[in-house]
Amino acid sequence: MEVDKGKGEAEETRKVAEADRDTVTLKSSDGKLFEVSKEAAARLSTVLAGMIAGGSIDDNGTDLKQIGSEALENVVDYCNKHANSIPSAALISSSISFNTAPFKEPEEWERKFVDRLSHDALFDLVEAANFLGMERLLDVTCHKISEMMKGKSPDQIREVFNIKNDYTKEELEEIRQELAWAFYDD
Amino acid sequence: MGCTVHTTTHALSHTERAHAQRATLYGPSLHLNHQQTSSTIFAPPRNMAAAGRRCLSDLPDELLQRILFLVPGKDAASTSVLSRRWRSLWLASGAVHLDSRRFVNKQQPERNRKKRARRDDDPPRNNTNNMLLHRVDEALFAATAPITRLTLVVADDGDDDLELHVEAADVEDSYRSRKGRRRLSFGAMSSSVLRVLRITGSASPSPVLPRGTFPRLGELHLNRCTVPLPDLQSTIGAAPKLSTLHMESCCLKQQEQEEGVPVWRLRRLVCPAVSDLVFADCKFQWDHEQIGLELDAPGYFRHQT
């Protein structure tokens, strides 16, 4: 009886402590744990905000099986280091379509943040940001990829991004004629 | 404690619409399956971390469109030859960006000119800016999603007295419904969908600011434009949600002195909703002594001179 009571109290204390914690522990698909500021996570990610508000955050590491450790590390890095200069995710994504919020050019530090990433890491981060509902991070990562596509010929883009051409020669010619304006200076 | 996540209604409410939409569009690649009510709802269709070399095509259409939204018109259009999947992605990206500098001295190859029947409204080929407008016209016509971002860069190489106008009340609809498409012009633009407008002009001739109402216009970027202050004021007045006003290398002209109007009132710019304001390398062309511009922008937080 005594023991049970003690256990109950401990449980109680743990719960209080959990509510008071100002960080959230996230667990990547490969089992690594990352700490992120609760405030930043809630502000930058609609999904994490919902989970925090709904009490579905696990103190031992909230499982994000979708996200690998490298991408999650980048997400956490983005949140922890740079949370202060970013407008609220809830504000930006008050509507579901990205088209409804004006796109803002990435800040200098955001450019640097994505510039250092490999292609693989960048694509992983885009997906992670999408999965976690991080509108601003999505803008920044998508902007980076769009920069990589600008001014490149289709062949160059295929090579850079590893895209397989599955058109027949005839189909290609048809499209080129349809969109002559986009190609006539090639 | 298991590493499980129990979703709550609250957690879902933020994303369920978005994900539900995704589900209908990209069923098989849907990441989040809300039908699954077992303990680990974030069970992935595949493990991203374990995948080998990633490629752009791994991303769902939605994200590719989001990327294309930021790619200039010609580059975006040319992605349709990448592969079958890319064919119409750019058309649904919701953006048109065109730069007339890309059309300078570029003639259509002979083969295309022969195969494509010349239309009455085809622009004279020697007119770069007409060409630009024609491209915009074509891009808007072809678009399958409402255009929310229109970017035009006007070359300063010609003698064209160019006025940029968009006639459409709703860019997409009016272009679709009109039988004989007319040349794009900004004259009576009253775009209910436009959210970002960038105009990069030349000092002379300078593009004329669009007139009309812009209920959703959030950003106005002017670069190398000469703008009469009253015109700018009327554009800002017609855009109640304009939160970003960036003017670079612009020249603000004074309006004619009207009788009975105090001078200070003529040099005043009122931008009630603007919170992000940049005047960089801008000049003021006043008739009289050098007096600055009086800015009434209660919400702004950034100001450069």
TrEMBL record, chain A:
Start and end residues of each SKP1 component POZ domain: 23-84
InterPro entries given in the database record: SKP1, SKP1-like, SKP1-like_dim_sf, SKP1/BTB/POZ_sf, Skp1_comp_dimer, Skp1_comp_POZ
Keyword presence, Magnesium: no
Subunit structure comment from the entry: Part of a SCF (SKP1-cullin-F-box) protein ligase complex.
Keyword DNA repair: no
Pfam family, one: Skp1_POZ
Protein's recorded name: SKP1-like protein
Transmembrane segments: none
Annotated GO biological process: jasmonic acid mediated signaling pathway; protein ubiquitination; ubiquitin-dependent protein catabolic process
PANTHER family cross-referenced by the UniProt entry: SKP1 (PTHR11165)
Gene3D superfamilies: Potassium Channel Kv1.1, Chain A
Stretches the record annotates as Disordered: 1-21
Protein family according to the UniProt entry: Belongs to the SKP1 family.
Organism (species): Digitaria exilis
Keywords carried by this UniProt record: Ubl conjugation pathway
All residue ranges annotated as the SKP1 component dimerisation domain in the record: 136-182
Automatic annotation (TrEMBL), chain B:
Record SMART domains: FBOX (SM00256)
Domain F-box stretches: 53-89
Region (Disordered): 103-130
SUPFAM superfamilies listed in its UniProt record: F-box domain
The name this protein goes by in its record: F-box domain-containing protein
